[in-house]
Sequence to fold (402 residues):
Amino acid sequence: MSNDKIYDVIMVGAGPAALTAAIYTTREDIDTLLIERGVIGGLAAVTDIIDNYPGFSQGVHGLDLADNLRVQAERFGAKIELGEVTSIESNGKILKVKVDDKDLLAQAVLVATGCDYKKTGIPGEEQYYARGVHYCATCDGAFYRDKRLAVIGGGNSALQETIFLTRFASHIDLLVRSKIKASDILVKELQTFIDSGKVSVHIGVSPQEILGDEKGVKEIIGKTLDGKNQNYVVDGVFIFIGLRPNTDFLRNSSIELNEQGFLVTNANLETNIPGVFVAGDVRSGATMQIASAAGEGATAALKIREYLEEKNRKIKSSTE
Amino acid sequence: MVKSITIFTTDTCGYCQMVKNYLKAKGKNYEEVNLDHEPHRRDEAHKISGALTVPVTVVTKTDDSQEIIVGYNLAKLAPALN
Fold:
């Protein structure tokens, strides 16, 4: 990475929002660098099948969608580098993006860092992480062939991952704290596994503790609506209870976050810091859909183009 | 010096793909053990890493010492390749 070059735009993250934005900016000959600390494609890349992204009549594997987005962005000249952004600062003219131990400069920045799965915070969750407690079914499900599992959560992710895990597990207890809040099609698909006895749904159960021994997880305790503890004997627990925004690196910055840590933007997807734009799940008000993230990425790219044009026009007129 | 690299993966694991892409970008050859295709090797992966997860990358050095990297962890993987 060069220290003195000024990029037109640096995109923090390389999920569907940033990759879509990069397709648009690079096609406009806007010099674009993406910085990704984890997986190119973000959470989409670790999702088995994406059934609601338009244009794929039979659904698309998350990995394939991510890879196609990457190839498409790189075809037009987007550069993707691996690294962790630790701060974004503005001096009013140029934005400084700290990546690992280097400072990069840009005219504009797009924050599209997405979200990660929330943790429950219950005892045993951290202790048994990767030894029976998991957040990625597509990564870790294969270790549970013919084993009993619990899945915590009642949203789209929880149902989708439960359905995915049925290909490995002998039985799954789905623990839902309040009610199922997932799309009808997922509910219907889940019902087939409930009917076959492969999945049992437990509504009104709050997870309390994950228990195990040196070999791994043995059971999970949940509290039912009547206040009683219920034990579920399982070999593993997969947790999908919602999303938390990847904005820890901006906690001490002057960029506005809402109470939950999501980035606040105006209608142009721009933050309170001029030149810093946001797209995708990390934005306050985002709908947490891959199609929406891609759409926001396209919108942000167009707004960034306008911003850069206006900025260059002002510089030109001030020097004339 | 690196003598060999083995990665335990599954078909659907995005992080596995990232490790493979990284190794390819660094020009490193590796042997892939896909646990979806070779499920009998799950215990081997578990025993090596102590974790029920993939990717697990085993970097064997010329002195036969090994470094085990669990997950997509560039902070550990990059120095292990040197």
In short: The longest helix of chain A spans residues 290-319. Chain A touches chain B at residues 38-41, 45-46, 48, 61-63, 66-67, 82, 130-132, 134, 136, 138-145, 164, 216, 236 (CB under 8 Å). The mean pLDDT of chain A is 94.
